[in-house]
């Protein structure tokens, strides 16, 4: 867009000018824009200029074109655009700021009149509208008197006067002023349109060419003035005839091609924006097509000097339209038609880059002609006065008739020396590639990448070019199928990229002679890439190391040979991409690249690399006859369709057991062998025996072959197309197929057929008879009902089919089990507690509790059973297991597929978790030769994952004890709590006790305190109420928990069904009892009442007593006492004052004592003794305290009195 003047780049806006009182222009402009935003929805519709009172407007020069002898120098003056957009306003608003003056003296009044008259004279010549804004003092009372001189000057005119009472009143007047300015401006430009349309070519007396130029001028001006009024239809109605006249102006000679096409570019810019602003995208695309054809069909000059302008115009046109489409797609994506490529920005960016490339080639051709250098006379270049015209010289008379040629030569050489066309093309191609990738147009993105690589190669940037060529033929989008990219449709694109990669590597290595087949394709390039400059003696700066360059050259060279011989070069009737002689010359270039030091001081050893050989295939067979167990002979037959013979120095087969050295068959030596098309190379090697950790049932695979090149022993050819054959040479069924490029040319007879088994992952050795061992998980209890801290038992059922019927075992073996656990936790769940762990039961002598062996350890496996040579499973002495024959009475035990010949063994596995989570178990069984587990791996079985959901079993809730008085303590009462069973089955409570732990310590700090109440069975969802003994809270001041031990009701019968089946001898002999599940619940501390501001009384005593046994009662005072004072203490035995028959009382029941001034501390006032006379609940007498300022009485307190240990006889006193 920078090629166009700013007046054309954006739609024109109505222009108004504020004259005088410049100090308020900013405030007035802001208020006018705000008023317009309220009307237009936030858009500005005028632009305001600021003038002083002595401003000057350029005078109008009208009538010149009607004068005799008028000469048309051009179509549209650049100065007219500048004046109408930036200089000449449609409305003048004369401002007078009298906000600081209450009145005006005669001198000031005369000055106001003079300033207004000057503004009227400036506006009169061009018929500019005039408005007056007067800002009076806020306290002015006689506005008519102050504005009288202004009204006298405005009499008889259409000008209006707006008066504001102070600056604060401007906001209320802004809407009216803005409306008047807008209406006046619209009227001004409408009059200008009518004035322009009034020109009549018949009365002007001009030539036909001049009349045509004047008609175009009038149409362009009318269209541009219509844009001021937002009249899109009127503007297009004027632009289209003007453009059509310029298209066909070559017939009547209106102007030269440069001016005509330059003005067409400006008109097209405005038409694009008008069409897109009115959402008429098809019309914009239609005009873009017309304008592109117009530019392409414009004739060049005779000397060809100005031809660059044609490519420059075309590139700018597509670049501009692409940017406008991209902006529209971001705002209104649904407006774009995805099926029309002319509505796709990437297409226009790519087309613009193509025209830049054409321009670049033309500039380089000009550089080769010294005769076309400009002489440099005539001074500097200055802009032309008319739009689209070529620049002019300061002193054109020095060049005479060659002035235009001098300008064209200078502009052409400016394109050569001052414009970076490569950078322009790369920027356009980058934007085009991004657009193609966004729409997932993979073919278009590949074209962009190829052109970017060409640009880098032309500029000598070999590193960037080689990387792009590498990515061009290798990279595929994520998730894209192999046959969905451009390669399946454009085989020649891959060959092109390979040719360019070879060229880049040869240039970087400094090879003076490159491959002929690659060099001939460089004729389409320009610049350094064409090879016209002398090759450098070494690699240029900024490229990769010499060794890496050699490896890359080898890989690309042989891939190219594979591609051109793989039917990718064209159809059956098409000529070959490269002849055999050219291919042989390419192979010699590769040898030379390995032999030269490349100017980098390296040697051939740096080029050690593995080169894929795409045209080679191998038939692989496994011969197991005559070898020991686990060994066999590998037979390989190599074939190739490469027309160039290769001399080999060795071969290695890469297998799942390691490398296997291959030797020529029939005692031949490598030095006497030559591998060429049409002949098979027979090789053989010994496949080693499998190791102890190799699964005999796993696939044994030959992945690829490596062939050492005799010309460069450090280079190894890789053959990955393998065919599996049996011992008799018969092809085995197809395993894996390599996706291949579609073959267009017919293949050679020596090449493998596409129907043959070509495997990219190698070939698999036919499996031997494996051990028929399988396993499954048997869970008598629902795995979703596992309880936290409980032992959950699942059973691994191992089955060997056909035991004793000739299984492939030569000696006894052993069965080993291992386990891994993955934990899935709820983010909101409690993370305290141990992670899930798996164990097996220890069958050896132990304690009274189960002894368990951990399973989940890194790389650890435990021997679970012995396997006899006949395939019988036998329990070991270390791990508890049960033979399947002892579980016939269990109805839920039904191994899948087991029959009378099957040997079945059940191995219990115990899982325990200390937190609420899901545990996913993965169990693995291995059968190994020998009894110690160090022998060969015979078979591996992985059980399907078992998911256990551990949930909390119990929930504990504590009750708050009632506090007798504010700040009082309830520790003298038992604290109740309830245990709720959350389990789907009943549980048996075994132990409930309170335990105190020191913060940060390892164990309890006090002896556990058992809870009060009876333990027993808790049904699902029911509550079991217990209590903490009185005083427990007093002892448990630190972190305390309620520890609850429980066990699932019917644990043994649930997890070991054979124990409840009642079959004789079926009950297992597990050592000890299962560990109890334990859950811990924090004991919340009770809230203490706040310290009272006044003292209060409470009684402290034991919660229980017995008849005739004395009970000591203390009278305690709590609360805040400000100072020491004397109080009276009186024990009230009953409300009526009579003695009670339920107890005797002795001690100071009426006394006086001293209270110290303390802040809520406990103070003992007195102590008395109470002897209960009857059993049951006994209410104690109250204590009443009184002082000078306060009185307090203890609340009712009671004790439970048990009967006496022996009979008590009450006697009355004498």
Spatial shape: flat
Query: What ranges have pLDDT less than 50 throughout 5 or more consecutive residues?
Result: 476-488, 528-538, 568-575, 598-607, 727-760, 964-968
Q: How many alpha or pi helices?
A: 23
Report the mean per-residue pLDDT as an integer. Answer: 80
Largest β-sheet summary = 10 strands, mixed
Helix content: 25-40%
State the separation between the terminal residues, measured CA to CA: 130 Å
Radius of gyration: 52 Å
Q: Please count the beta strands (DSSP E, at least 2 residues each).
A: 49
Strand-pairing-aware structural class: alpha+beta
SS strand fraction: 15-25%
Note down, in words, how this protein is organized.
By secondary structure, this protein is an alpha+beta fold. The chain contains 23 helices and 49 strands. The strands form ten sheets. Strands 8, 9, 10, 11, 12, 13, 14, 15, 16 and 17 form a ten-stranded mixed sheet that branches. Strands 19, 21, 24, 25, 28, 29 and 30 form a seven-stranded mixed sheet that branches. Strands 18, 20, 22, 23, 26 and 27 form a six-stranded antiparallel sheet that branches. Helix 19 runs antiparallel to helix 20. The chain is flat. The N and C termini lie far apart (130 Å).
Give me some keywords for this one:
1214 residues, 10-stranded mixed β-sheet, alpha+beta, 49 strands, 7-stranded mixed β-sheet, 23 helices
